[in-house]
Amino acid sequence: MDIKNIILFIVSALNFTLASIIYLKNPKSGINISFGSVILCAGIWSLGIAMFRYTNDVNIALWWARIYYIAAGLIAFFFLFFSIIFPYKSFIITKAKVFAILIPFLLVIIIIFIPDFMIGEITINTPSNEVTLQSTYVIYTMYFLTYMAIGFFFLITKYASSQGIHRIQLQYTLKATAAATFFGATFNLILPMLGNYKLIWLGPDFTLITFAYMSYYLFFHKHNI
Amino acid sequence: MPTPRKKIGLVILGGTVLSEESSDKNAVITKNDIKPWLSRMPEINIMADIEPVFILGEKDKEPGLNHWIKMGKIIADKMDEYDGFVVTHHVHSLLQASCALSFMLGNLSKPVVFTGSQIPPNLSKTRTTRKILKKYKGLGIKANLINALQIAIQGPSEVSIMFGNKLVRANQAHVTKSLSLNLFNAPTRAVLATIDFGIKISESARQIKRGAFKFKGLFDDNVSLANFYADQNIEFLKWVLEKKPSGVIIQSHDLDTTAELLKKSLPKNLSTPILIHTDTPFSDNDNSYFQIISNMTFEATLLKLKWVLGQTKNRKQIANLMRENVALELFEEGE
After folding, report:
1. Domain-by-domain residue ranges, chain B?
2. Is the confidence metric ipTM above 0.85 for this complex?
3. pTM, to two decimals
4. Is A22 exposed, middle or buried (0-12, 13-18, 19+ CB in 10 A)?
C-alpha cells in the first residue's frame, strides 16, 4: 500500500475519533450532532478516497467513488445546518426551510447514482485510480461551493456581531474549517474539474487542521479570557 | 404540526449595557429604551417570544430587597404564563438578588436565569479601562443574554446565574477574584451547565419534583453583620445588639476564638439569633448561643436568614430552617 493511502487511513481514523468525541460530549445538542456529522463525513470521505485508490476492481472503485462523493456532499449539507444553529439560530427553522436545504442534496445523490451521468469511466492505475468526470459534475461543484459559501456567510456574519464566549467559539470554528475547506475544494473539486485527478489524496489531509484546532479548543482551551 | 414557540419573561433590573461604545446609550435607562435595546439583538426574538418587564433602569440606584420582592411577585404571578424567565441585574448585587429569589420561589418548576453586563453605564475611558476592554473583549450583556435565553427555554428548573461559559446554581455561587467572562463560579456539583460547543446540562442539574409552586416573599431586613478577626473585642458586637436587630451574622476568620468570646461574653438568655459564618469545614455546632454556618456561601447565609426571619421568629424554628436544605443552597460534604 502506498504512503498516500496510509496517510488517508490515518486521517480517516482521526476524524472518526473526533466525531465520536464531539457527539458523545453532548449527544442531545443539535450543534454537536451537526458538527460531529461534518467530521464523520470527512472521515468517510477520506476512507472512501483511500479505498478507491487502493482497489483494482472497477466495480468496487465505482462504489467507493460514489461513497466519497456522497460523503463530501453530506459535509456541505451538515456544515450548512451547523452554521445556521451555531452558536445560536440565524433564523427560525421551519419544515419548509429544511426541505429547501435537503432537496438539492437529494438531487445530487441522484446524479451520483445515475450511471455515466456524473461519474464516467473508471481507470484502474497504479498507484492511483482515476475517474473521468462528465460535464454534469459542474452541478455537484455548484452545490458544494454554494452550501459551504452560505455556511461561512452565516458564521462570519455572526462573528462580526458577536461578543464574549460566542466570539471565542466562532473564532475557533472558522479557523478550524476555513483552511480545510479551501484546500479540500481546490484539490478535490476544482482540479478534478480541470482534468487533474492525481491530487485527490491531498484534500482530506487538510482536515487535520480541523482536527488540531478542534482538539485544542475542546481539551486545552480554558473557554475563558 | 410546528412546535409552539416558548414564551420567556425578561425582567430588567439594570445590567443591560450592550457594549463599551457609548455605554450609556447601549442600555435600558427607562422603560422606553427596551424596544430599541432588544432590536439591537435580533437573535433573541428568533429564539423565543420575549415579554419584557421593567423594574429598574441602568442609572437607577442599586436594587435592594424591596425590588427583589417585587421581582419575585411578578415572576410568581406570571409563572403559569411563561416557560421560563431571564433576569438582567446590576452585577454588584446580582448574587444577593438571585439568592433571595431562590428562597422566595418554592418548588420552582421553570428556569429562572440571572445575567448581566460587566460594563458600567457611565464608563470612563481612562487608560486603564481601555487596556482592560482591549484585553477582555465582550464584557457586555449580549452573549450572556443569548445563552441565558437558551437556558430559560430548556434548562434546569432552578434559580441560576449565566455568565461566560458557565451556568451556576445561584445560592452556591461566588464572585471570581479576577476579571473574567466567567464572573461567577461555584463548586463542581453546582455548575449546572457549561458551554464549549453547545450548551451541555450537567448531571447535577436535578429536576426534583417536590409539589406545587409556592411563593414565600416575606423577609425581615433587620439583620446586622459583623466581621470578626482574631483580636476582635466583644464591645462592637454588644453595640450591634443594642440596635436590636432581628438577627446577627458574624463572619469569623478564627472560629475558635470567636466562639469562645461569644460564650464568655453574651448573656445566656439572649433572644437574638446569632449565626457565625465560616469557611472552616471543621466546626462544632453543638451549643445554644449561636449557630455555625460552614456549608453555605456568605450571600446565601445572609439572604436565607432574612427570609427565615420573615417566616418565623421562633429561635428553634429559625435554627431548624437554617439547617434545612430549602433551595439546594447547602454544599455537599467535601465541597
Report:
1. 7-215, 223-323
2. yes
3. 0.91
4. buried
